[in-house]
Target: Na(+)/H(+) antiporter NhaA
Amino acid sequence: MLALVRSPRFSAIALLTAAVLGLVVANTALGPGLERLLDAHSPWGVVGLDLSVSHWISDGLLAVFFLLVAIELKHELLEGELSNPRTAVIPAIAAVGGVVVPALVYLAVTTGTSYQHGWPIPTATDIAFALGVLAMFGRGLPSTVRVFLLALAVLDDLIAIVIIAVVFAHGTDFAALGGAVVALLVFALLGRLLRPGRTGQSWIIVAMVAVGVVTWWLVYHSGVHATIAGVALGLVLPRRPGHVLHERVEPWSNAVVLPLFAFASAAVVVPSVGLGELSPTFWAVVLALPVGKLIGITVFGATATRVFRAPGRSTLSFGSIVTVGVLGGIGFTVSLLMNELAFARSEEVLDEGVLAVLVGSGIAMVASAVVVSLRARRYRARRELFEAEATE
Model:
């Protein structure tokens, strides 16, 4: 059961199901009740946490997802595909293209409007969804495609983290931020004392959980988005405890955290307006996610492959780079978060942004399923032909 929950296929299906369910429920008679529930505030305002249910999900629970992202990012940088600069440079350049071009497409569509600050929305790739689509339709593709996609998506997440920390910081409280740094150092020191598998270390785990919560609370009050606390905690956690934590928490993230966030984020009422009345934000995101990502990743990735080609080292074919570019257009989780941060004070545009992320990511999903299936079928046919010739 745990193996199923950890699989990319399960994560992709769970996310899509939760998003569709949230959208459907919001547009039925249950919609007003769901809206009241998500807007309800907790009684914890006395400790400076006057958050609605929806904000507890996006600011609190989603920090768990970013904690796991940071642990995976650290692993890739230290031991994985990104540990070798020669190997990492091509997906790094492709990731930059996959951020810059969608942002430019968004800005081009929204030029002259008051919506241009939403440019980060289409810059994100949903690593869980993209890998899930690849796993479902890519049987037979060479492993290098998955490795390239994983490296690109991890770097994309790193860029998204920087954007959230820098672009969406507001009224920074440096005292709270300094306190968060101190708490983070304590967390790192406790992590070095932790020896997974040994007995009598429960107090260290309890202390780390407490310090982690304090770090999150201080980051929330600093004006930096609270999910950055999850990133920081994941990066300072030693590798072995980090691996154990990732193994234990990933099923909860896939089965609870991400679907709950997708459900709450997609629970918007479809505007009863004509296509011509939708804001430029809608069209900008719908265009930038599937098209901007494809162009950016393909052009930058293909160029980097030519420039940094090394003798004796295999490189991705142009078709494989295009395949990864199509998959990169699936924004979803982080794009929904970016939309929420960009248009938090404009409910109508916020809802249109959610729909745009769902539509743009949906287009990218369908295109990915077709492209990946065709490429996989071609590779399987080639392999079968090779095996048949070898047996003759």
